[in-house]
Amino acid sequence: MKRFLLSLMCFMPIAIALYIFIVCLFGEFANDLFKTNLNYRIGSYGHMFVRLSEIKAQKKIDLLVLGSSHAYRGFDTRIFNKFGYKTFNLGSSSQTPIQSNYLLKKYFNQLKPKIIILEVNWDNFVSDGVESTLDVIANDKNDLSIIEMALSQNHIKIYNTLIYGFYRDIFNRNIGFQQLLNTSEDIYIPGGYVEKKSPKFYHVQRDRVCNEINRKQEESFNEIVSLCKSQKIRLILIQAPVTKDFYHFNPNNIAFDKKMKLLSEYYNFNDSTQFSDKSLFYDDEHLNQSGVEIFNYETLNILRL
Amino acid sequence: MTKLGLHLNLNHLNILLPIGISFYTFHGLSYLIDIYNQKIEPEKNFVDYALFVTFFPLLVAGPIERATHLLPQLKQPRIFNYEFAVDGLRQILWGVFKKIVIADQCAFFADMIFNNSSQYNGISHVIGAIFFAFQIYGDFSGYSDIALGTAKLFGIQLFRNFNYPYFSKNIAEFWRRWHISLSSWFKDYLYIPLGGSKGHYLIKIRNILVIFLLSGLWHGANWTFVIWGLLNAIFIIPSILKSKQDKRFEVKINGKLLLGIVEFGSILFTFFLTTFAWIFFRSSSVSNAIDYIGKIANNSLFNAPNFDSLSRAILPFILIIFMLLVEWFNKDHEHVFSGFSRIKNRCFRWLIYSLLLFAIGMFMRTEETPFIYFQF
User: Fold this and answer.
1) Regarding predicted confidence, which is higher, B7 or B146?
2) What residue segments make up the domains of chain A, in order of their start?
3) Is B302 on the interface with A (CB under 8 A)?
4) In chain A, which residues touch B (CB < 8 A)?
5) What are the pLDDT digits (tens) for B36-47?
6) Beta pairing partners, A64
7) pLDDT grade, residue A86 (50/70/90)?
8) With a CB-CB cutoff of 8 Å, which residues 323-352 of chain B face chain A?
9) For residue A18, what is the nearest residue in chain B, using CA coordinates?
10) Same domain, residue pair B29 and B121
11) Which CATH superfamily is domain A11-303 in?
């Protein structure tokens, strides 16, 4: 038995070291078809790379926005800045409370926000949050604090991508990378907002998951609420408007509203009749610029309360 | 029946059953039959008997053990055997690879095509069936390897359940290599008492039909399993009826690294027959299975596959070929790593294990895919 355990103990560090080495090699040279569980997408769809590059220069802001694409495509920093709120939008693709909590903790001392808007929706509470963690790993300079988030999610894609992410950071493989601010579809606005160019509506077929809330998401969300309470920061939970059909597909809306209201100041814009017109959206989930303006002026009214 | 509130519909024999019932029922039956046949004495020690019935590696999906084989081992004092335990870990490693890499990768495509059959053309249906053939092999033989390996860590040798079945040259041989513990159970407790392959050819055919129809029903109360069993019986009958049939049961390709065209053709043809039968096994109803086969038979069989993720199917194909090559070169061993203890170079052995661990970590499917045989 002793010999067996000793062999295992000798083998494990060697296997781990070899694993890390091969993941780095694979990430560098393998075709994407074979990178089943390594998803490193620097400069991805949600402009996270440029947003995280920009945040490094930010200091002491009034308003910090966190959340999914509903946040970074829904809160136009130009409007909030115009009305005297120095704002940074730290939303990212499919961001869930797990990543919001991670990003908030990482940048809290640097930004010292007075108000935090956390965009919440049912889908992000039931999600495992893997997609968004991969987005953060690929687009941010990783430090040891991300390991805690990776361990809490315990997903092989996150481990592999994190190994490769550390390799790229350590060997400065991302130096010189630049993300286009103005693409054929989007314009990145300084402060983290992404404006959609075409206002034309297109329907997106997406399966909505209506099962139970993920316990880890709930824990992370509670940590955000606790942090804001302990730091005496106004936390505003906002459910951004989506099309009525998309919203009413979810049978859990009432229960979700009740839960959010119990935890902090909460506004659900799907209750408002202002957003019943599809002409304010460019797809089922996202407002076009006209819709964003109405939404943001309504949010400003909330901020003034 | 209706007055009693029971609604019997012969078209739908779906009955809710406890997990693993097919396995532990046969496991327990072998004990009772062996006592009846005076092969063993009734076990006096309740703890040993309870352990025999509930030994966790085999409880939910086999292999189906015999009291004559397992009980004497359980009664022995536990002595840790280094070589045995290391061999167990190696077997677990290969089993995990087969399950979460091969089976789960194949499951993605098999499910996609079987569950949305109307969207795909003939050749896509062929690919779907092939993927299912490897899904069920990777899934079940992977589980068996994990179970056998786990038992070895406790110093227990369980029955070998798979012997590289897709290298069989005929269906009779396939059934000597696939789910061996079930095939041998039927052979010992049903086929031979019924007369086996002795006597008039009608008796032989009857015995084969009984065995395979029951084998189908063992998998579940669904007509798809009955037809799957019946098809296997039909495929096996010619080889049983031929003279010198016992020799045809022998595992023939062991020891050969290269095959002749005829042998290779036989292996391919046997694989085609088993895959055809698997279509019934996988389909949710007989009409779905017939519909699936009908789609294979149409003109689009000669077109390019029409599923969107065609390029993603390259990886599971490569992995299947890798698995087949590894198994082919190790087909003379109990499992692919059985011969590894003879390799003196520890660095080489550890490198191979590490590469396999990497393959698992990089290519495993991350969504939960339960073992297929957990439903039986």
Assistant:
1) B146
2) 11-303
3) no
4) 1, 3-4, 7, 11, 14-15, 18-19, 22-23, 26, 33-38, 130, 155-157, 159-160
5) 989 889 988 999
6) A88, A116
7) very high
8) 350-351
9) B354
10) no
11) SGNH hydrolase (3.40.50.1110)
